[in-house]
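Fold description:
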Amino acid sequence: MPVFLAIDLGAGSGRVIAGITDLKTLRLEEIHRFDNPGTDLPGGSFWNVVGLYRDIAEGLRRGVEKYGKDIVAIGIDTWGCDFGLLDAHGRLLGLPHQYRDARHEGMPAVMHAKIPEAEVYKQTGITTNFYNSSLHLLAEKQLGSPALSSADELLFVPDLLAFWLCGEKAVERTIASTSQLLDAGTGDWAWGVIDALGLPRSIFGKIVAPGTVLGKIRPEVAREIGMEGIPVVASASHDTASAVAGIPMDGGSDALWLSSGTWSIMGLETREPIRTPEAFAARCCNELGVENTVRFLKNIAGLWLIQECKRQWALDGDSLSYGEMAKLAEAAPSFSAFIDPDDAIFAAPGQMPKKIQDWCERTGQAVPQDKGTILRVASESLALKYRVVFENFCKLSGKRFERLHAGGGGIQNAFLAQATADALGIEVIAGPIEATSCGNIVVQMIATGHLPDLAAGRQLVRESFSFDNYHPHDREKWQAAYETFTGFIGR
């Protein structure tokens, strides 16, 4: 049966996944899993992209060892925004920085002195956030970066890795749309923003649509993995674009989705960007998707809060599994306190339990003392923040949505999934867990002619995986909690 290899990289770990299909169902198999830790060095926080490439090659080698000539194609998706700069010979000019690198600090004010944020939004459909590529490139310019002044081309992380695999340089559209440097309407570079920031036009190269076959793997790669001639597809290279493609949503205008992971991203799938003053005021963004769709969305802190609590407690000598943490949260008292998950204090890693306690103390609430209560406060607050975003989408679209389609690793947290249904007061359909890999593979299958379109791909996913349905309970109790919670937003 045809086999498609999906390289799925997150801001913490990566996997090479084999998708085995008879074109009626799809089965996923993890071939290789590896860590992707950020590294703090003199000069900032960086990604070890060379190490990632080595692990990708090892995953491909294992895939070839098992599936050989059944392998049809390879596709890559990663987190958004981060990029590498290359010279005229295709050589990488230093390790890519992490999007949480401190160089973004102070850059929004510098940027908006050059071009108002409302004008940036009018062109790009993206609000200014600490992780935007625009701010990090502006920081490079402000610092007089030798890499920027010597650069011939900019490639985002999945584009860079694809270049190393097949030797073809191109920028895939969905990943470029995270940068705040792409016009959400035309799909071309937002030259007005680029020029206003004083960035060199020459580094912004060819943009290709998701599903473009870039070329076959380089001979050196073929020798290393044991097979030649495998095409590399520019899949939906932004992991959220792949995740949305892999969620089998109902058709029509009631398709509200949630990609649940380190970041939680809630959005609508539309045909045109929404760049109204109301959308700008709600801090909603327009990123591009598969088949000329737009992902009108809002980023929310997500499982980052819970992941950081887990990491901190492990450093303190108490290692807990996510299952154990979910049980602790469920056993704790409900609605004892609230936090704003998107407060800037929670953005940086380290000491997350104490940050949650400090936030509650500063806002005059009961301070959670035990692990279960800390986790319950974080989980309930996250579900209630989903409600805030949900209400904004209802207002902006003029619709009242009846269900939320959720995919990604975060849906394994059944406590949070039920809390989401309770907070929103609508049904939550959860699945698939591996939405990102599914979407990556579906786009490869369309590119290679194994599927006609995205609708057929979503039907394939629907036929292949199980889904959990969560229905809302205790509506009055959650409505009262929501009203209290909204009083704390922005404090």
